[in-house]
Amino acid sequence: MTYRIAVLVGSLRQASWTRKVALAMQKLAPASLAFEFVEFGDLPAYNQDIEESGTLPPEWVRFRDAVRDTHGVLFFTPEYNRGMPGFLKNAIDVGSRPYGKSVWSKKPGAVASVSPGLIGGMAANLSIRQPMVFLDVPMMQQPEAYIGNVATLFDDAGELKSEDAKKFFTTFIHGYAAWVERFQAK
């Protein structure tokens, strides 16, 4: 079976290191995973007054529908000020509402954080895990993906050049495929 995976990239820049990592993992993923990149940079800020007005922004509807119809969710994120980017947090909030109708619930998830620094976006990684646990998303525990020194991993054409990174990315994405299979088999 092929599992459709909602992929959310926390950096809105098309040429970001974070997007390059996501694209590299897509190439290394087993055939059982079909990456579906769900864009969210156009989402209006979540506001419960809008939710209760009965007239939802079409961007909210598009986003919710795109995530709802998938089998799992993968987050790729940079770290901004020791946390996840604001647009990504807004997407999580938009998908979690209205109460009781979250598009996240029961979707097996994982997160890979990316940084040009040594720590690999650890705080951003953890800041995504926290709301996902509350939203009933079983988050993959191992292997964890804190990808530091990301600027050294790609060549000028944006292709992964580090064999060590390629091995780790393969381990991570195949581990995630097994995680999805575990929860979807139930």
- Counted by DSSP, the helix tally is 6
Could you report the average pLDDT, rounded to the nearest whole number?
Answer: 95
In terms of per-residue confidence, which ranges show pLDDT below 50 for 5 or more consecutive residues?
none
By CATH reckoning, the class would read Alpha Beta
CATH superfamily: Flavodoxin domain
> What does the radius of gyration come to?
16 Å
Strand content: 15-25%
What does this structure look like?
With 186 residues, the protein is an alpha/beta fold. It has one domain (3-184): 3-Layer(aba) Sandwich (Rossmann fold). It has six helices and five strands. It has helices at 17-28, 48-53, 58-68, 86-96, 122-134, 163-184; strands at residues 3-9, 33-37, 72-78, 109-114, 145-147. It has a five-stranded parallel β-sheet, with helices on both faces. The mean pLDDT is 95.
What attributes characterize this protein structure?
single chain, alpha/beta, Rossmann fold
In brief:
By secondary structure, the chain is an alpha/beta fold.
Write the layout of secondary structure elements.
Blueprint: E1 3-9, H1 17-28, E2 33-37, H2 48-53, H3 58-68, E3 72-78, H4 86-96, E4 109-114, H5 122-134, E5 145-147, H6 163-184
Parallel strand pairs: 1-2, 1-3, 3-4, 4-5
